[in-house]
Amino acid sequence: MSKRGAFWLAALLLLAVVGFLALASRPSIAPIVPPAASTFAPEQVARGKILAAAGNCASCHTAKEGEPFAGGLAVATPFGTVYSPNITPDAATGIGSWSRDAFARALHEGVARDGSHLFPVFPFDHFTRVTDEDLAALYAYLMTLPGVKKLPPANTLPFPLNVRALQYGWKLLYFQPGVYRPDPG
Predict the structure, then answer these.
(1) Closest-CA residue to 151 (of 100, 87, 77, 58)
(2) Each residue's pLDDT tens digit, 85-113
(3) In Å, what is the CA distance from 133 to each residue of 100, 105, 140, 179?
(4) What pLDDT was estimated at residue 72?
């Protein structure tokens, strides 16, 4: 290959990488002050508790002998270990600074409040079907739990699998977003 051909190939490759990263980029959603538990209707919180039980949220977001929903459960994958995040309303280490819109984006699109793509260990490909009403109830329930200040251990995925932007490629191949719509028939 000539120098000129190698230059154009490198330029094309660089353009493809920049284009992919631009497509994968998601903006962060501004943090909020955690809402007071009293701002949520008791019936909405009760419905959220039922949904959290049905979705088995505690089983993945509670480490062995750990505080409920405070994360830290090790999920072994063929690629490395991913630790579940804290989903209590602690503003520093949990989802307390997440707005309902940020929470919705995580469940419906697999994107965290800070704009990073979530690993598909979190089954957002299933939670994308959660209705807005159910999502609001689940958010209300989680935001009324006691906040637990606990950061999970760091994931042990090797490079390049630990690059969250690359999860966009997985999403292009396997993820079909869309909220559940009942079949009128």
Answers:
(1) 87
(2) 999 999 999 999 999 999 999 999 999 99
(3) 11, 14, 11, 11
(4) 96
What are the residue ranges spanned by the domains of the chain?
Answer: 40-174
Q: Amino acid identity, residue 9?
A: L
The strand pairing partners of 71, in sequence order, are 62
Cβ distance 108 to 26 under 8 Å? no
Counted residue by residue, the chain has a size of 185
CB 131, CB 150: distance < 8 Å: no
Question: CA dist 98 to 46, 52, 94, 106, 151, Å?
Answer: 20, 18, 9, 10, 16
Tokens in use for 13? 């490759």
Match 């209705």 to its residue by tokens.
131
Structure confidence at residue 24 (pLDDT): 62
> What's the pTM?
0.85
- SS3 for the chain is CCHHHHHHHHHHHHHHHHHHHHHHCCCCCCCCCCCCHHHCCHHHHHHHHHHHHHCCHHHHCECCCCCCCCECCEEEECCEEEECCCCCCCCCCCCCCCCHHHHHHHHHHCECCCCCECCCCCCHHHHCCCCHHHHHHHHHHHHCCCCCCCCCCCCCCCCCCCCHHHHHHHHHHHCCCCCCCCCCC
pLDDT at residue 171, as a whole number: 87
